[in-house]
Amino acid sequence: MTRSTDELIQEALTKAISYTEYRELVANLAKYGKSTGATQTDDLANYTKLNDRRMKRWDKMFKIDETAAKIVLGTTRNQTWLVLTESWCGDASPALPVMEKVASLNPGISLRIIIRDENEALMNRFLTNGGMSIPKLIVMDNASQKVLGTWGPRSQNATKLVEDHKALHGSILPEFKEELQVWYNTDKGQSILKELLELLTLE
Fold first, then answer.
1. What is the residue range of 100's domain?
2. Strands 136-141 and 147-151, how do they pair?
3. Gene3D superfamilies, per this entry (predicted)?
C-alpha cells in the first residue's frame, strides 16, 4: 500500500533532530573522518569536514537585519520546517545556518532535520527536476498539516550560476564547487534569506 506524503512526513518527524543536534552530529563525523549515509568515502568525509568548518563560520557571521526580523516576527502561523540533507552537501552549509537563524527568531517556527538517504520515500515526493537534490526544505502548517511550500536545493541566483556553468562545460567541474562557495560568502546568505522570507508569506 502506497503511503501518503502526509504519512511520510509524520514518520520522518519522529526521527528528525534539531539544528543543535545536527551540528553536533556533523562535528563528530568530521572528527572521526566519516559522513552521514551508508556509503563512506574519503571524498564524502572531506566534504563533511569542510562543511563543519563552513557552518561554524556561518553560525557566527550570518545576521538578520531589522527589516527581515520584522517579517519573521510578524509571522503568526505555527509551522514546521523539515529539511532533508546530508553532512557532505556543500549547498547545505550556508542554507541550514540561515534557516536556523530565521527559525530561532520566531517560536512558532520549528526547524527539524532528517538525513536524505534514510528517508528516500519522502525525498522522492520532493524531487528537483527529477533529482534528489538537497538541501530540501518542506514548510508545513502545524494546524492543518498542509504543505505550504518548499525550498531548495539552492537560491535562484545560485541555481543560475550552476546552470550557466553546466551549459558552458557540460557538467559541474570540481573547481566550480569552490567558486560557488566563494559566491555564497560574497552573497552573505541574502539570496537564501530573501526566498525564505517569501515562504513565510505563503497562505
1. 5-200
2. antiparallel
3. Glutaredoxin
Q: ω into residue 94 within 30 of 0, thus cis?
A: no
CB atoms within 10 A of CB 153: 22
* Crossing angle for the helix pair 156-169 and 190-200, to the nearest 10 degrees: 130
Residue 151 bridge partners (DSSP): 137
User: What type of residue is 133?
Assistant: S
Cα–Cα dist 194/55, whole Å: 19
Q: Are 72 and 106 in contact (CB under 8 A)?
A: yes
User: Which ranges of the chain would DSSP assign to H, the alpha helix?
Assistant: 5-13, 19-31, 42-61, 66-73, 92-105, 120-123, 156-169, 174-187, 190-200
| pLDDT tens by residue, 19-74 | 999 999 999 999 999 999 999 999 999 999 999 999 999 999 999 999 999 999 99
Length of the chain: 203
CATH value at residue 156 = 3.40.30.10
Q: How many domains does the chain have?
A: 1
Give the tens place of pLDDT for each residue, 153-185. Answer: 999 999 999 999 999 998 888 889 899 999 999
